[in-house]
Structure formats: structure tokens, C-alpha cells
Amino acid sequence: xxxxxxxxxxxxxxxxxxxxxxxxxxLPGSPARVLLVIDRFLxxxxxxxxxxxxxxxxxxxxWDEFAGEPTAAQIDAAAALAxxxxxxxxxxxxxxxxxxxxxxxxxxxxxxxxxERYAFCANPLPSKSLPAICVPTTAGTGSETTLTAIFANAAxxxxxxxxxxxxxxxxxxxxxxxxxxxAHLTAATGIDALVHAIESxxxxxxxxxxxxxxxxxxxxxxxxxxxxxxxxxxxxxxxxMLVASCYAGIAINNCxxxxxxxxxxxxxxxxxxxxxxxxxxxxxxxxxxxxxxxTSAFAAVADAMGGPxxxxxxxDLVDCxxxxxxxxxxxxxxxxxxxxxxxxxxxxxxxxxAMRKSSARASTDDxxxxxxxxxxxxx
Length: 379
Hints:
With about 375 residues, the chain is α/β, with parallel strands linked by helices. The chain has helices at about 20-25, 40-45, 45-55, 70-85, 95-110, 185-200, 210-230, 235-255, 260-270, 275-290, 295-305, 315-325, 340-345, 355-360, 365-375; strands at about 10, 35-40, 60-65, 90-95, 130-135, 150, 160, 170-175. The chain folds into two domains: about 10-175, Rossmann fold; about 185-375, Up-down Bundle (Dehydroquinate synthase-like, alpha domain). The strands form two sheets. It has a six-stranded parallel beta sheet with strand order 1-8-5-4-2-3, sandwiched between helices.
């Protein structure tokens, strides 16, 4: 079924975060009690105080008890704090993890069950959600526009929740909040946005109405990512990447991802490789294998990246961009003892099946081993 899901209201501009009080006032019921979800580093940078000052006289509860990928226990703790303080809205500021926590808390706070109850859509999310405002400080996940949230379950595995209840009410794209991101993370998150866009317009679920958004995201990444990595203070490049990430999030919201993200989730589970980098390496390895299944779609991507309208040109275009922004492609020294069979087994797990199934080309277990070998032997 072809579906274009609703997109939250999106505000864009340098310094836009300082108008957040007006954004909260415009939410249903003009909430007086707000939970701010923000990662510890950003909280200690003074950004939490800045938001609290902007929100006065509203009551703001701060939750910054996480770093990196959030766990189910951390999300449950944040939801418990929100219930205790009777918050009426949630603001998430940070990378994809912070935004996912904010969306999940806003969604599950109405009921006492653990977030684990909703993993892999095992149970429907509560029907009543709090309004949520998402403010990304990285340009990669597009979480501010997706209906998905990722967390680590009690077993330490990547889990996901999905549903319209996870939609943000509003997104704020302020490029000044991304300028302190180190170059290697700017590169990794930007490549993640590129992979989102490419997979959404080449997988088995793609359709033309969604392709337009994906292609726009690809053009923006190709144009702005090298500049954002080279010059962190380039606000035009930073804003371009935020919009690219946002568009790519919209695109995967409608069509999902594919085999590169299957590889990325597997790498993240067994090797703790940064997700954006893992997705880029997964795409780099899987593109030559994927091309025959959707030649015209991949040709359009090559065109959007500034190359010829030729699918066969795409692997080199992607590889050149990955290397241009300084992303390391070799993994062997970081994953000692991880064999292709071990990685392929992780790729074949049920929690990664949806991404495998969505790929334009059907994969056998032998294909997974071949792709795992390519990823692990890259230099």
C-alpha cells in the first residue's frame, strides 16, 4: 500500500531554538509543565539552562540520564519521572537517541507498562500521547519526522517501536545547534541520512510520490555534507544537512529502509559500530549486489548525486563521498573475532527481517554471508 504519512510542522532557522516558548504555548492546552529530554553532554553545555530560561514561567523537568543509545530501563525511568511531575508536553533535544526517548516517553506516559511491551509492535502503543517537540542537533536520523524509535532492550539488542502515536507535533531545525558536532560525527550522521534517502527510493516499497523527497535529500547531502565536515561554522551547509536529514526521515517513514540498514543494525548489536557509519559501510558493500534488481531507480540516485544517469556509476559515487568526508571503511581491527558467519547470523535474526524483506533484491543466507564478508574485509 502506498501511503504518504503526515509530516509535523517544521520550523527552520538559525537561533530558532530561542522561540521555543511560543512553540510550547501553541501546543494543545498551552502546557504549563514540560519534560526536557536532552543528552548529558548537551545538558552540561548550558543548552538545558538556555531552554529553561526561554520557557519561564513554565515548569520544566530535566531528564538527561543517558548517553548513546538509550536502554529500555532509561526510557521507563524518564516516563516515570514524567508521570510523577504530571508533565503535559515533552521536548527532545539532541541526536536521534534523545529524540527517540522523547517520542517514546510522550507516547507511553499514559500507561504504566514498560516500553519493552511495545518493542517490535508486539502490542499497540497507547492511544493517548502527549505533544512532543523534537529539536535535532545532528543531521542524520531524521527522527523528528519518523514514526519509529530505537532503543536497546533488556537483552542488549536493538529494538524498535513504530506507530502514528510516535509522531512529533513539531520539529525545530536550528543549524546553530549542530556546529559543535565533531567532524567524524558530522560525516557519520550525514552518511546515515544519505543511506535513508537512497534505500527509501530504491527498495521494494518505493513509489514515485515518495521518490521526490528522497531525491531532494540526496541532492542536499551531496552538496552540503563535504562543506559541513570541512567547516563546522558553515551555517548554510549545516542548515542544508538538517533539511536533508529531515527529508530523508520523511522518505523512510513512507517506504522504510533495506539491506544496508539490516547490516547496520547487525553491526550495532555485535560490534557497537556507530549507526551512521555502519549504515554507510552497509550501503557501500551492498550496492553492487543490489543494482540489478532496480536499475532505473539506482540510476536516478546516481543522477541526484551529481553523476551520470547510470546505475553502474553509483557505487563509486557513494564510495567517493564516504572517503571524501573522512569516514574509515575498514572494520577488521575494530571487530576482532567477528567472522562473516557471525555477522550474517545476526543479519538473519527476526528483528532484522523487515529490512531484509524490503530490499529490492531477495537475499539468501549465502547472500548474507557474502555481504558480511565484504563489509568485514573492506579497506
